[in-house]
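Technical note accompanying the year-one report. For the benefit of new consortium partners, we illustrate the data format agreed upon in the data management plan: each record pairs a sequence with a structure-token string. No post-processing was applied to the example shown here.
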Amino acid sequence: MCRTTLNSRVFCEMLNCCRPICFRCYWWVFFALILDWGGASHGPEPLRVQAQVGPGPYFVGQGFELRISVAARGGRPKIDLPPIPGASAWLIGTELRPISRTGIGSIVDEENVYLFRFRMVARRAGTLQIPSIPAQVESDSGRSQSLHVEILPVPAIGRPADFLGGIGRFS
């Protein structure tokens, strides 16, 4: 008598004697193994890379933060910030947040979120297009989605005569 369990393990239950697996159960087991191995054989998963900026509005000359987070196993990812036309950007800090850690004996596997913080300053009004940002750890790589940030011109009304272009809070 053959039956399939709810957890997709296929087995053959024989009454009164131990006989080889029946032909129908053989094919169920064969396809179950192929499906399991097929999912694992597609190679490494790409890195999860996310880029985000806080809510605006942003003005020409005002600094704002671009945050890039990378979920990765292994070492610290390498981030190559591509040139962004109409803006300057520089790294202002990095953080590490553990997500998971498992170990059996001396074999340890851990996944972390690496956060890279960049200061961005737009030099012109309009839509600032931040291209997708690549990240790489050993042989694994991934890219963020591109971002579009609306940059507003500095209002002319209420500006002092000696205005030099600085926008935002000074701290």
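Partners are asked to follow this layout when depositing records. The chain has one helix and twelve strands.
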